[in-house]
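Deviation from plan, reported transparently: adenosine-5'-diphosphate complex.
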Amino acid sequence: EERSRLLEEKNELILERNMDIQAKAAELEQSTRYKSEFLANMSHELRTPLNSILLLSRLLVENNHGNLNKEQVEYASVIQGSGNGLLTLIDEILDLSRIESGKMELEYNFVQVEDVSNEMKALFAPVAKDKGIAFNVEIQQPVPQMIETDRLRLLQILRNLISNALKFTARGAVTLRIAGERTDAISFTVEDTGIGIAPDKQQIVFEAFQQADGSTRRKYGGTGLGLSISRELARLLGGVISLQSEEGKGSAFTLTLPLQQAAAATVTATTAPQ
Ligand code: ADP
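Because the crystal trials were delayed, the predicted structure below was used instead.
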């Protein structure tokens, strides 16, 4: 009898604790929702004035009809550059808050792999050329011609990985390698011969606002949001991003995506994330 009384008491305690945990979880969910809403509203409010800053500074740079001297045009282009940086930050924060609150809407379409490759070449070949490094795109046949995914989000992830690769590489090459992984997945590997990432930073760089070089006087600009957004987008698309890197030698980020949305679950289950 004593035993059953004790058991009952124990059960009650467990029940109480469960209710406690549930209340805490609900509270947490609520505050996450507030945060996301706040961020979404703020981003929207910030954009409106920023748009006029961007528009007017562009007019000053491009259409000043010789009314401004060289120094003044330079000031205007600094305003434009900083404004663009701010816009990127706002867009990234908005993306992240959409992802966190489960409001990121995806639009699936059939995407030609060749188109993706051409688009990346058109976008990044000039940037690479400016920096004096090579930009190669290799399609390792046999590769499926078409994949079913959200085109814009796929391009966003690749843009992020390739612009990072170019940013952290001073000489050598950046390569986008597209390969058919198994029968139901495709991989996009962005490889560089840049500064690389130390083993103890390889997880951290995927976290929001985290950079491998955390010092305040760091050499490279950026928000530290790109990789965390990319990893979350990859997950939403049913895929994963993994990283292999060696300090001083270079990095390779691999995005693996299912060929079709129906296969999404198997890619996440069988491709171990880093
Ligand atoms: P950002 O580039 O704006 O700092 P990211 O989230 O895209 O933000 O990247 C986070 C950090 O990961 C970078 O600051 C950098 O330290 C590291 N990193 C990302 N890509 C590379 C790369 N290709 N080579 C070396 N370091 C990288």
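Strands lie at 109-112, 134-140, 146-149, 173-181, 185-192, 240-246, 250-258. We consider this an acceptable substitute for the interim report.
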